[in-house]
Amino acid sequence: MTTYLPTLKQLQYLVALKDQGHFGRAADACFVTQSTLSAGVRELETLIGVTLVERTRRVVRFTPLGDRIAEKARRVLREAEELADMARAAGKPLSGELRMGVIPTIAPFLLPRLLPGLREDWPDLRLYLREETSQAACDSLHRGQLDCVLLALPYGCGEVEAEPLFDDRLFVAFPPGDATGQKGVAITPAAIDEDRLLLLEDGHCLRDHALAACNRPELRAEAAMLGTSLHTMVQMVGNGLGVTMVPEMAVTAGILEGTGVVALPLEAEHAYRRIALIWRKGSPREKDFRLLAEALKQGT
C-alpha cells in the first residue's frame, strides 16, 4: 500500500494561512502567487481527506481539526529547519542565513554601530533583521520565524537561553528650560511628576522597565501613554508636553540632538535594562549564537 505524505511546502502554505488569516497575505509571506498557495492547501486537504479551511468571500476560518493540524505542521517545519541548522552548525561558524529580531528601542541606536564590524569579521554570515515589539519578537522566535532576538531584559519570553551583552542605563528627559532638568544631577523617582510622565504604549518593554525602575505603582495608572516610538516621545518632550525616559544607548546615538531636551540619569536601584541575545532553548545553533553574542559585545 502506497502512503502519500504531505510535503513541507504544503505545510508551509497551511501555517502561513493560519498566521495571516488571508490567502493574499499568506501568499506574499511565502513569495508565491495566491493561486499557487490556494492550490497547495487544497492538495493537502485532498491528500489527507479532510477539510482544513472553510472558505468564504470575506473570511478564512480554520476547522477545529485544521487548527490542530496547523499547529502540528508548525512543529514539523521547525524540526525540518533544525535539521538544516544542525548541518550548518557542523560546518563553518557564523555562516549562512540567520534571522534576528530586534526591538524598536534597540534597533536604530545599536545596529548602526554593530553591523559594519559584523559584516567585516563574518563575511559569510547573511543576517536578516526584523524589527518587532518584545512580545511579537518572542512569538516569532517560538514559531520558528526568527532564530534569535536582541532583547532588553527582564522580559518573560518563555523557554529561551540568554547571553547578556551589557547594561543600558535609563535617563529622564526634560523639556528645554525645565527647572528640574537644569539641575545637572541624577534624578530620583520621587522627583518625577506623574502628571507629566509620557511613556511608550503597551507592547514596548522599555515602558515596563522604566516603571519597574521607579518603583512607584501610581505612575502606571497616571502616566500618559501616548508614544509609539522613542523619537516621537522625545519630540513631545521637546515641545514641552511632559517628561519621558530614554535609554543611554539612544542618548549616545544622538536622539536629543537639535531638540533642546536635557536628559539626566535616573538614580534608582534598577535604573537600567540588560541587553541580551536570546534563542530557543535546545537550539542546535547555540554555539553560533554565543559566538554572535561575543561579536556584538566587542562592537559595543
From TrEMBL:
Q: Which Gene Ontology molecular function entries are recorded, alphabetically? A: DNA binding; DNA-binding transcription factor activity
Q: Which UniProt keywords apply?
A: DNA-binding, Transcription, Transcription regulation
**InterPro entries recorded for this chain?**
LysR_HTH_N, LysR_subst-bd, WH-like_DNA-bd_sf, WH_DNA-bd_sf
Which is one Pfam family of this protein?
LysR_substrate
Q: Which CDD domains match?
A: PBP2_OxyR (cd08411)
Span of domain HTH lysR-type: 6-63
Listed under GO cellular component are:
protein-DNA complex
Q: Give the family per the record.
A: Belongs to the LysR transcriptional regulatory family.
User: What is this protein's name?
Assistant: Hydrogen peroxide-inducible genes activator
